[in-house]
Amino acid sequence: MKHDITFTVNDESYSIAVESHHNLLRVLREQLVLTGTKNGCSEGECGACTVLLDGEPVNSCLVLGVEADGHAITTVEGLAVDGHLAPIQQTMVELGGTQCGFCTPGVLIASHALLLRNPDPSEAEIRAGLVGNLCRCTGYVRIVDAVREAARMQRTSVSPIP
Amino acid sequence: MQPFDYIKPQTLEEASALLLQHNGQARPFAGCTDLLIRIERGFVHPQVVVDVKDLPGVHDLLVVRNGDLRIGAAVTMNQVALNPTVQSGWPLLAEGCGSVASYQLRNRATVGGNLCNASPAADSAPALICYGASVHIFGPDGPRTLPLEAFFLGPGRTALQAGELLTAITVPFVRGSAGHFLKLGRTTIGDISLMNVAVLGWPDSDVPSGSSWRIALGSVAPTVIRAPEAERLLSQDTSPAGLEAASQAAAAAARPIDDIRATAAYRSDMVRVLTRRGVERVLEEIGG
Amino acid sequence: MAIKKTTIVGQSFPRVESNAKVMGAAQYVDDMQFGPNLLHGRLKRSTVPHAMIKRIDVSKARALPGVRVVVTGQDYPGLTGLYLSDRPTFAVDRVRWVGEPVAGVAADTPELAERACELIEVEYEELPGVFDPEFGASGAAPLLHPDLMDYAAVPFIFRQPGTNISNWFKVRKGDMEAGWAEAAHIYEHTYRVPHVQHVPLETHVAVAQVDGNGKITLWSASQSPFAQRNLIAKSLNISHSKLRVITPYIGGGFGAKAGVSMEGACVVMALNAKGRPVKLAMSRAEEFHTTFVRQGLVAKIKMGMTADGRITAMQNTYYWDGGAYTEYGVNITRAAGYSSTGPYFVPNVHADSLCVYTNHPVGGAMRGFGMPEIHWAIEQHIDRMATQLHLDPVQVRLLNCLKEGQETVTGMIMHPTGLSQCIAKAAEALDWETPSKPSGTGKRRGKGIAAMWKAPAMPPNPGSSSTIRFNEDGTCLVNIGGVDMGQGALTIAAQLAAEGLGIPIEDVRVNTVDTDYSPYEWQTVASRLTWSMGNAILRAADEAKTQIIQMVAEVWGEDPQDLDIIDGNVVSYATEESVPLKNIVVYGMQKPDGTWAGGPVVGKGRFMPTYVTPLDAETGQGPRAVVHFTTGAQAVEVEIDEETGEVQVLKLVSAYDVGKAINPDMVRTQMEGGAVQGLSTALLESIILRNGQPMNPSFTDYRIATAVDAPVEMVNIIVEVPQDDGPYGARGIGEHAMVPTAPAIANAVRAAVGVEIDSMPITSEKVWKGMKGQE
Lengths: 162, 288, 775
Ligand SMILES: Cc1cc2nc3c(=O)[nH]c(=O)nc-3n(C[C@H](O)[C@H](O)[C@H](O)COP(=O)(O)OP(=O)(O)OC[C@H]3O[C@@H](n4cnc5c(N)ncnc54)[C@H](O)[C@@H]3O)c2cc1C
Ligand code: FES
Ligand code: FES
Prior knowledge:
Chain A is of the alpha+beta class. Chain A contains five helices and five strands. In chain C, the strands form nine sheets. Chain C has an eight-stranded mixed β-sheet with strand order 3-7-1-14-11-12-13-22, sandwiched between helices. In chain C, strands 9-17-16-15-10 form a five-stranded mixed β-sheet.
């Protein structure tokens, strides 16, 4: 059962027909071939599928594709602007917050959203803000460092670590 | 996941008719954080899912004329937990809703869905029960209202009849009250409750201890339950000895089971511990 | 050769592929596009732990429109396995664990494949099961593999006919009677480790397709593309040249993606798909119990100590819960045997390490390969004995830990090692002597330490190879067969190649694996890549560099000894002349007489250890059991809630002797990630099995540590006592990082509240119960 929807993804508009039982994650990955967003569980637990829906992070595995009708989605592919990495992307690279990289898209979106709502998060706030993003590789240390450093960069708008 | 159709009705009548029409094969949903997983795991096989998010009033989060808080069926956990009015007037509820899963999940999970899902571990329910909340239901016979305590019938079972949906929740304002929600999980935060305790207290010169109490316990019985004996004891005595007696009474009210998450014995003892901690914190705030 | 000062090795470069990863551009198998022709595979799985298959009826599934392939064990009865060929791709006449594939379906959509699986009817005749390894090893247990002795196997495992024991590694060393007699104190205890899962964030996924010439391509999220090619080709009886395995980026492995688990099924379905590609992706639930799990363990330890803490004798029995098939587990059992004493000098040893078939999920390699499990027992045991004798656990470890020149449990002479340094430094960084104050009333704190050792566990002769080719612009391509699953292999390869060649790291590209184009690598396991593949890369770099220098020397009429490559230029120390690599590495160089020298530069290198010896089947003794041991220690401080039993890890110090840190920051990130994985298994994880049924195959009830559960503070200490045959002295670190974590935490819990936890995980409830018991 298909439904026509119109929505924007990373500021580009799409009008497509989606199956009513396909989740947003599947629509993004299979229909739009935006494969940056990952599937780590399909059950809302791991956060690898996190995207922004109208600026707020959601688990795209638990959103139906049809529900995106009329909304704006941001995925990891939409974080960089004109090829320039967003601060959180830069600090994740520089500080080693990514290993296998599979959790990384979701971590980046969740962190980005955290910094939007709280430009100066404490260590505890960063950790709590990422509790819905499982990472099996890094032990979280560098991810937390990267968020803290990105916050600092954004606040002082200094350029990234060279 | 087996295919199903999706419908987003615009009126309550239309929604109710849809639910009746598909004869149990239509499922309403708000955030879909429970429903989609149950479909994925093959526990339910709806032919159609009915999105409640366009129905009138479901996004309301406001204080109505008599001072009650009204929460529409599609209001999310984050909307409640982060709302300044809720934080100041119904802090216990803000804590309960804020303890659910992760930030991104709370952006979708609704209080209404949490109640309709009727899990004994539902983290918004103990607070709502302490405040004496009621639920508003719309069905083939029109609207009706039920106290929340009468809404839960058992794990996964509610008082909703065929064709009925939850439209809103009202939460009375309890003047002068303070409350805390304490939850024990396996991971430090974000876990489903092994058990939880909501404690609400307010000054009351008509009772010997000077304060009245409501205590609700989650995940220690088939539904969220009150601990009436503990509440009574606290209205008599909030000295350390009274507090200990009340905590033990709360533990005695619990009827937990052994499961893969914890044993009954641990859950009961944690009811005692977290009840005491909750009461202590509330006492500090209301001056006991 | 005089050791030149390195400029790239020893520097902390960010990983070379991280830009692609943070942009969402890095491709994993599930991201690859195969077009609308793609079929979606799904496996019908056994719902019972042990049964004969009476009947399989696939007719209804076949009849469902859109279903293109249905296969069962009858169609492909071959067996496979890394060390012991005991595992069918699909169960043939008997199922041995809940989740075992009995049939495979490929259909136009995942929904159809799911529906088709539901339509397959399987009738079982249930058999009594084995759910405990100690029982399984006994004569009373039903036999799970009556054909055990007929399976093909490597020579270094020892099966016991007529039993469920697929490997029995024995150590008989010294004089036990004398050892016990010398002891002032003897303590005996049993410890348990449950099954856990690796939980890579990316579940197993594979796509297979057969072309018109019968050539099969398998895109696989694998740690072992070459081993997969080998095992699948052998089980299907096809030529290795007919199977090509391609592995792009993979989303974590931790051992789960070593060897073959579900990939064979994908290939078998593709063989029947008339040229259409077939994708098989594991759901998270399937990942938890149907690919590989870490084996369970029952460990019985008996140890004797003198009054001053010297270990006089050890008698250890390890019953490994190997699961339904022990094709991989037999070697974990062996590793546990040749490491059975932990990192200590013990003159008298009696050890038995038994791999036992059970009706549980299949045990495979997992980060640490048996070491986290046996150290859980050994490191708690030694700590408890130290306390019983009123000795300091750090001092007891320093006294007994292996030093260069001492004999290991198998009679190998220990190479230079920084183990003592690691123990001392870890303790020091934790402020071992000074107790710290709890954060409030009702809280108690404690400190604990654990040491470790681990050798790369592998056959004696696993090979590595590498080639280096140059581009016109002076950049080069390094080809390797090792997989970067997040541990940083690509970056290490780039650093070693750049250092070896004398070019900037920016000029090096490292390719992911395609077995048709990449040189051979045994497997990406055993923390062996930096060491083994690293050696191959250095040799390839050396050959390429020699080609370049000889060409330039010929053209310039100089002695090659006077030439070097520095920062991408060939320079002459004699004449101070210099020429960039650009162009000459492909087109060669024109000589003064107008003729040419050189040609496209291609370096190749290989490495294989040749010196490992067999061990005696009855005593476990032999001159060289393994290539080397990485050693280390962790020290932790915990705070415990006296009423709830909740354990918080405040500080975690890791100290490891890595020989040489090629990229120090990447060593540290391995230490951090490993420690948190160790913490997670210590406090939270277990696959709960009731009569073989997994009770918690989802993140809902199989919790892993989140950012909030990670230690408040972490300290990482790198010790560098060089490895004689390591690249620049390097040894592996990937697995070691989680080996001592769980016992270190257990020891800290005991120090804090006096509660001894014999079986992992250390749940709040167990600590609570222990404290209740003291009241
Ligand atoms: C990863 C994860 C973690 C979780 N952690 C927690 C936790 O910590 N604490 C907790 O309490 N819960 C937790 N949950 C459960 C769930 O998120 C909550 O119960 C949530 O509040 C449900 O809201 P929803 O809007 O998503 O419900 P939905 O999935 O939309 O609906 C839930 C149920 O209610 C019915 N329903 C929904 N709306 C209506 C209506 N208006 N009228 C009648 N019936 C209706 C649906 O048919 C369905 O049966 C977790 C879930 C996930 C996936
Ligand atoms: S895939 Fe959505 S949370 Fe894991
Ligand atoms: S980097 Fe691998 S899961 Fe986070």
